[in-house]
Design goal:
alpha+beta, 2 helices, 6 strands, globular
Length: 149
Amino acid sequence: MSPPTPNSGSGGPGLEELLEELRRRKWVLHLFGGREAPEIYAAVHRWPTCADVIILRDEHRASAYRVPTFPGTDVFNPRVVTWQYHATPVWTLRAVLTLAEPGTPGAPLQALRPQPDCRIPAELRRDVTIRPTGLPQEGDDGGGPPACA
């Protein structure tokens, strides 16, 4: 799969700006199917009780969902989700990036059966590259968490 193309939809931030926002928020990127030519791009943002996941399949199809995390939860093969969205990469990124944080008003709580696109096939998960996406901030030496005051 080639990287998703800038398909901005109608107004608002385009794909590059949305991917930059993922990096700013320190989502972890997963490249499935080989580092040189991945078949699927995915990103995960972990919260204390759940994880937000986005799967970019191609320039036309993407899925995002929030999955409760318990010991042994496979975020790429969820049994239950509390929210899911399936559309183009731009609209899917917009949706997941505007989702209310867990524990805040408007955060999804309902248990839902995940659609099939909320999964990454096991055969593609044998060859995966995992990359943190956080961008160093000005004055950040990248040496780990800040010291306690």
